[in-house]
């Protein structure tokens, strides 16, 4: 095993305050988020200056670091705003800037020299010389390109300064383009993927048209509904954490700032438990089955191990949608006198089997055999969004726990 100079962290995404709180409650060591400008995800709410200060205070109070994404490729007209944006973010207390542009790196070192700089995966670091160059330019960490194998990562670790931190993605969506450098969205929609506005046209369905047969569309594969030939699988390395760590990765990054708080909670909790088990067990580590099962309780595409094991991840050709086997039925707001107070999220019925995931906990199952409305009148179902529901249970349920139910086959895919 390669000896690490610093603690290994689970790094979770935070697209807004709700997702930030999910990451903090369910075990993140660090979070990455964006301000209102210069971040590669513009679809989430992100954080204005006041919200950023509050996010940092909340995170630091729990011992969690905050990394601010400044990884777009800024244009000339944006550059005058960048120094003040970085200085203000530094005053808010962020622990690091994540940058991909050399000019942004240079400005960050001048505007906020006290803040660490991490090099984004957008920079496409695939070799030790590039990692060395960024280290010499003042970077504390490089977020490695997703196209690397574990052997290549291990060589980068061996041939770079031991104080340079290595971060790599372990879970989430994979981009069809190298290190996320894509122009398809620009061409088809005018939305610049390198400025945080990707329309994800790689997930659309395509057919082929021959120039002399205008209006005649042909499926690219023998499949009646066309083909999703750009549509990448999702990354899942939960079963290979020891190999990631032994290769030299010290920050295990979860993709998903545009995904739900539920996704953030479940994935963060699973990877935190898997990591803690590995740190306790070392070479005797085995992945507990429930942790792997959690990966199937979130919305996801077909899983793959990416390029890490020397394979090509390939695409999902038959559809562009997600696999959704579970949904959140309710969130626990408190427990008293044998009753859990719940806030409904999706309809469920009396007698339903509910899979409970408490912050930092191991999931367990209860049955909603006795359900009551806000006036404590018996009810057969909870059909209304955010309605208050009480259920009787001998087992106390922690505040903030997620109660999930299995979706019926064919339901709303």
Fold and architecture overview:
Helices cover 24% and strands 22% of the residues. It has 413 residues and is an alpha/beta fold. The strands form four sheets. It has an eight-stranded parallel barrel with strand order 1-2-3-4-5-6-7-11, surrounded by five helices. The chain has a seven-stranded antiparallel β-sheet with strand order 17-16-21-13-14-20-18, with no helix packed on it. Strands 8-9 form a two-stranded antiparallel ribbon. Helix 6 (150-158) runs parallel beside helix 8 (241-247).
Task: Name its key features.
7-stranded antiparallel beta sheet; 8-stranded parallel β-barrel; 24% helix; 10 helices; 413 residues; 21 strands; globular; alpha/beta
Which stretches of 5+ consecutive residues score pLDDT under 50? none
Strand content: 15-25%
End-to-end distance:
43 Å
- Main beta-sheet strand count, sense and barrel state: 8 strands, parallel, barrel
Overall shape: it is globular
The share of residues in helices is: 10-25%
Show the helix and strand layout.
Blueprint: E1 9-13, H1 17-25, E2 30-34, H2 49-61, E3 65-70, H3 82-92, E4 96-99, H4 102-111, E5 116-119, H5 128-136, E6 141-143, H6 150-158, E7 165-173, H7 184-189, E8 208-209, E9 217-218, E10 234-236, H8 241-247, E11 251-254, H9 261-281, H10 289-294, E12 303-304, E13 326-336, E14 339-344, E15 348-349, E16 353-357, E17 364-367, E18 371-372, E19 381-382, E20 388-392, E21 402-406
Parallel strand pairs: 1-2, 1-11, 2-3, 3-4, 4-5, 5-6, 6-7, 7-11, 10-12
Antiparallel strand pairs: 7-10, 8-9, 13-14, 13-21, 14-20, 15-19, 16-17, 16-21, 18-20
């Amino acid at each position: 095993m390669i000896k690490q100079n610093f603690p290994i962290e689970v790094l979770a995404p935070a697209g807004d305050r709700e997702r930030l709180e999910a990451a903090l409650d369910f075990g993140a060591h660090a979070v990455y988020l964006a301000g209102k400008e210069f971040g590669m995800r513009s679809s989430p709410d992100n954080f204005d200056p006041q919200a950023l200060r509050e996010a940092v205070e909340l995170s630091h109070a729990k011992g969690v670091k905050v990394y601010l994404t400044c990884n777009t490729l800024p244009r000339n007209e944006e550059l005058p705003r960048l120094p003040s944006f970085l200085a203000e973010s530094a005053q808010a207390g962020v622990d690091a800037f994540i940058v991909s542009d050399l000019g942004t790196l240079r400005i960050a070192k001048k505007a906020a020299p006290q803040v660490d700089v991490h090099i984004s995966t957008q920079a496409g670091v695939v070799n030790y010389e590039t990692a060395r160059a960024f280290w010499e330019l003042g970077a504390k960490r490089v977020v490695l390109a997703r196209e690397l194998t574990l052997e290549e990562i291990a060589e980068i670790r061996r041939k770079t300064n031991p104080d340079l931190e290595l971060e790599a993605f372990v879970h989430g969506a994979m981009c069809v383009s190298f290190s996320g450098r894509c122009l398809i969205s620009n061409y088809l929609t005018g939305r610049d993927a390198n400025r945080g506005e990707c329309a994800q046209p790689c997930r659309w369905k395509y057919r082929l048209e021959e120039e002399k047969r205008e209006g005649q569309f042909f499926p690219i594969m023998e499949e009646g509904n066309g083909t999703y030939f750009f549509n990448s699988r999702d990354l899942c390395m939960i079963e290979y954490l020891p190999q990631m760590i032994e290769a030299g990765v010290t920050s295990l990054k979860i993709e998903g700032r545009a995904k739900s708080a539920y996704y953030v909670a479940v994935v963060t909790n699973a990877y935190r438990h898997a990591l803690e088990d590995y740190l306790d067990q070392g070479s005797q580590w085995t992945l507990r089955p429930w942790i792997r099962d959690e990966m199937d309780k979130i919305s996801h595409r077909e899983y793959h191990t990416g390029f890490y094991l020397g394979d090509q991840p390939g695409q999902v050709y038959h559809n562009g949608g997600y696999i959704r086997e579970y949904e959140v039925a309710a969130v626990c707001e408190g427990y008293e006198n044998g009753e859990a107070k719940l806030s409904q999220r999706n309809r469920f019925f009396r007698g339903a089997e509910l899979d409970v995931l408490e912050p930092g906990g191991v999931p367990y199952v209860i049955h909603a055999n006795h359900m009551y409305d806000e006036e404590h009148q018996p009810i057969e179902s909870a059909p209304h969004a955010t309605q208050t529901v009480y259920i009787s249970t001998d087992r106390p349920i922690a505040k903030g726990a997620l109660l999930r139910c299995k979706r019926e086959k064919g339901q709303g895919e």
